[in-house]
Amino acid sequence: MKIGIISDTHNFFDPKIPKIFKGVDHILHAGDIGQPQIIHQLESIAPVTAVLGNTDVGLHYRQTEVVKLGGRKFLVHHIVDAQRPSEVLQRRLSRENPDVVVFGHTHKPFNELIGHTLYFNPGSAGKKRFSLPRTLAILHCDAKGIRPEYFDL
User: Fold this and answer.
1) CA 130 to mean position of chain CA atoms
2) What region holds the Calcineurin-like phosphoesterase domain (predicted)?
3) Domain with 94 in it: what CATH number?
């Protein structure tokens, strides 16, 4: 199974996204979406699960989503400190016991196994901000495990 991972689009849909995500089975958007048309454009590629980011005012998504894909449980939440999760998030992590935590906010790619959970940030797919690269990712999930693949935009 191939899962497209994207975050921090900030109302910008890069024209490279459809080509990169062609053939993915599902897309996870980790927040700071911008406007609903970003999700509509992603839905033309594959089903989408999205969460609110700290700049998503007036959008009708949840703060956190949990979805099972390819036999694995994904928890999607915008702001995550992988080393020191907030108390509220820590309770949710304990209750859900996800295989993967997908997050955004920092605009920095992050890929680290902590305990038995993969913490994964695809970076930012929005317009260039600061001196950070613009990226998104695909998680390849199969019987052998989870293999991330980052793409520069």
Assistant:
1) 20
2) 1-143
3) 3.60.21.10
pLDDT tens column, 65-77: 999 999 999 999 9
Please state the rounded mean pLDDT for residues 125-135.
90
Residue of 66, 56, 52, 54 whose CA lies nearest to 35 = 56
d(CA 122, CA 7): 7
Query: How many domains does the structure of the chain reveal?
Result: 1
Which segments of 35-134 are extended strands (E)?
A: 48-50, 64-69, 72-77, 100-102, 110-114, 117-121
Q: What is residue 133's DSSP assignment?
A: P
Residues 6+ apart with CB under 8 A from 78: 7, 30, 31, 32, 51, 52, 53, 54, 63, 103, 104, 105
Contact 135, 123 (CB under 8 A): yes
Is the confidence at residue 124, as pLDDT, over 80?
yes
